[in-house]
Design brief:
The complex is a heterodimer of chains A (400) and B (251). By secondary structure, chain A is mostly helical. Helix content of chain A is 62%, strand content 5%. Chain B has a single domain, classed as P-loop containing nucleotide triphosphate hydrolases (Rossmann fold), CATH 3.40.50.300. Chains A and B meet through helix 7, helix 8, helix 9 and helix 10 of A and helix 2 and helix 3 of B. Bound molecules: adenosine-5'-diphosphate (ADP) and magnesium ion.
Chain lengths: 400, 251
């Protein structure tokens, strides 16, 4: 289907079902139960899952296929957000032109940075991209924000004000980002007994766009172009002596991944019409590296899983504070309860980075193929249970 | 007719004159061997032909066109393919993919943004790659990771990859170095078959005299960066200057 083989088609369908049904899947606990705080099915977080999934899928086209590790991709995300907010300020709150401009500007910006950075490879390439991203951050944070020429609105962040032109904003159009009148904030809550499920317009817009982005990524992975990118990672010497010019291949991969980042940035602004310089910080660039490696570098679904995993941690684990812990361990004798809470305390709430760091180390050491490899091992183990004599089923699956 | 013409080439590395006054002419459809003791400058000369090094002086003409100043990928597109001393293949890719890449490069040139097509649907390329794998006797290995093959198979694959581009000149740098006798003989047979069946010129750098005398119909002896003699194999065998250059090495 859609020009994909059977395996890729099923992958696409599974991803489509998971994203469409996410409001149910992510809200398994009744709203008034103690476990409700582990529910992740609220619009804000679901949108973030998708947006960072797009970001990581694009990043993986560069890093997973060519092996070029960029430490500056947040710059393209930030540029995308700024472009989108400018569209809101100048044209209207319709998200389509905003997202389109975000992708185009991020593409041009990555063409410039990629052209320079790709003159080097390995660690020098990574450092160059990092330097460019930090320069972009500095530009956005202060240089491009002065009374004479205010492109980014500095520390405050770029936002839409009442006296902005918005020349195409219709009289009845929502005063918030919308798609031809459908506000991104509009949410329908479906109550089933003690459960509540949120269906949010913004989330579904993001989901549809991610399905398109994911489909295009599959096409790239299976194309001659994608094969050339993997060849770049494998042996540049052989490529050169086979009559292939590696430079335009890596640059094209860089620009494509920059456009995915810009798309993610544009969507972020479309969900919440704000753009701040902190989006371009190096920590944000590092985060997408972690997502990709955690999920499975060079696999199709890995980056999406990695993005979901990290965003879940950031938003759910960080909300577990001491009073929540005391609630959980209230059944223990007082002294013991305090001791247990003290031990767990550093790993939750503000300490969620610590837990994530430990998990990341464990994955890198024991599952170099990331969560995808974990899933494959699990599937193999389940299939092999009870038929230990069957040697043929022991062969490893190619990473997807 | 000479397909490759090297004139007055010199190359210096710091204080070391690696090549000086190199004149060499390789006839079309011949198998031309370049031999010489270790450090004679054989690899340096080859690197000057493929764009890895630029000679300090002199000219290198391939089929009437200068190769100097061109990047390796451009020189390959002119019709020169190169086999390395240690096989250079795409280790992480499958054998089939290894074979398809040079065919794509031949068909589409140095770069093409074919990002929306599917490899499996490129019927002509798939077919050409399958035929070449068949010819190299490795059709059964098509799904294997190239890195997991034996040294001899990697060499075979690399030669097949070069041939699939139908080059006019095939350059080989010590293709049998470090190989077991059986693998060496297989490689000799393969190269013989290639030069017999195809419209191709082969220039081979070799240390192993057995290989050289089994294959070459023209030999240039390089010593200390300069050609000593160029002659037919039977005359090289008895040449005292050559014996001297090898100084007790198995000539
Ligand atoms: N890139 C280089 N830089 C400096 N010296 C080199 C370089 N490449 C080769 N040489 C030197 O040039 C001489 C010829 O080397 P080479 O062409 O590899 O010899 P051969 O292949 O005949 O054994 C050697 O002395 C070698 O050390
Ligand atoms: Mg050598």
């Amino acid at each position: 289907m859609f020009g994909l083989d059977k395996k890729d088609t099923s992958l696409l369908i599974v991803v489509a079902l998971l994203t469409l049904l996410a409001p149910f899947i992510l809200n398994p606990f009744p709203t008034d139960s103690g476990l409700a705080q582990f529910n992740a099915g609220y619009p804000d977080l679901m949108q973030r899952f998708i947006i960072f999934g797009i970001f990581a899928v694009g990043f993986n086209i560069l890093f997973g296929l060519t092996g070029y590790l960029s430490f500056g991709h947040a710059a393209f995300l930030g540029v995308g957000s700024y472009s989108a907010v400018w569209m809101f300020k100048l044209l209207s709150y319709n998200i389509l032109p905003a997202i389109a401009l975000a992708v185009v500007v991020a593409g041009l910006f990555s063409l410039l940075i990629g052209y320079v950075s790709l003159r080097r490879s390995g660690i020098y390439f990574s450092i160059l991209t990092l330097a460019f991203a930090q320069m972009s951050f500095a530009l956005a944070y202060s240089v491009l924000s002065n009374p004479k020429f205010n492109l980014t609105n500095g520390e405050t962040g770029l936002q839409v004000y009442n006296d902005d032109p918005q020349i195409l904003q219709g009289a009845n159009a929502p005063d918030l980002p919308h798609l031809f009148g459908l506000s991104m904030r509009s949410t329908y809550t479906m109550e089933v007994g003690p459960w509540a499920f949120d269906f949010n317009a913004g989330y579904y817009v993001c989901a549809v766009i991610m399905m398109i982005a994911f489909y295009l990524a599959i096409r790239i992975f299976r194309s001659p172009f994608g094969m050339m990118l993997r060849a770049v990672k494998s042996n540049q010497q052989r490529m050169n002596y086979t009559g292939l010019n590696t430079r335009p291949y890596t640059l094209a991969a860089f620009v494509i991944s920059g456009m995915y980042a810009g798309l993610a940035g544009g969507l972020m602004a479309a969900m919440d019409p704000l753009a701040g310089a902190e989006r371009m910080q190096w920590t944000a660039s590092g985060e997408v590296v972690l997502m990709t490696i955690l999920g499975g570098t060079g696999t199709l679904i890995g980056p999406v899983l990695g993005a979901g995993f990290i965003k879940y941690f950031e938003n759910i684990f960080s909300k577990i504070n001491d009073s929540v812990l005391h609630g959980w361990f209230a059944f223990l004798p007082d002294g013991l309860e305090d001791a247990v809470v003290t031990i767990i305390h550093p790993f939750v709430g503000k300490g969620w980075h610590l837990t994530l760091g430990i998990l990341f180390m464990l994955v890198v050491i024991f599952l170099p193929g990331g969560l995808v490899e974990g899933g494959q091992r699990l599937a193999k183990w389940i299939r092999n249970r009870g038929k230990t004599e069957d040697k043929t089923s022991g062969k490893t699956e190619p990473a997807e | 007719m000479a397909i490759l013409e090297v004139k007055n080439v010199a190359k210096r590395f710091g204080g070391l004159q690696a090549l000086s006054d190199v004149n060499l002419s390789v006839k079309e459809n011949s198998v031309h061997a370049i031999i010489g003791p270790n450090g004679a400058g054989k690899s340096t000369l080859l690197n000057c032909l493929v764009g890895k090094l630029i000679p300090d002086t002199g000219s290198v003409m391939f089929d009437g066109q200068s190769v100097l100043g061109r990047a390796p990928f451009e020189i390959n597109q002119m019709g020169i393919s190169r086999v390395f001393q240690t096989p250079e293949i795409f280790g992480e890719l499958s054998v089939m993919e290894n074979m398809m890449i040079p065919i794509f490069a031949k068909r589409d040139g140095a770069f093409r943004m074919h990002a929306y097509e599917t490899v499996a649907n490129e019927k002509s390329v798939v077919e050409a790659a399958e035929n070449m794998l068949e010819e190299m006797n490795m059709a059964d290995k098509r799904h294997m990771n190239a890195a997991s093959m034996s040294r001899g198979d990697k060499r075979r694959l690399e030669i097949g990859m070069c041939l699939s581009q139908e080059p006019r000149l095939l350059l080989l740098d010590e293709p049998t170095a470090g190989m077991a006798r059986a693998d060496t003989n297989n490689t000799i047979d393969l190269l013989k078959q290639i030069s017999d069946e195809r419209d191709i010129t082969i220039a081979i750098i070799e240390h192993d005299m057995h290989v050289v005398f089994s294959l070459a119909n023209r030999i240039t002896v390089l010593a200390q960066g300069t050609p000593l003699v160029e002659d037919d194999p039977q005359n090289i065998r008895g040449n005292p200057k050559v014996r001297e250059a090898y100084l007790g090495e198995s000539a």
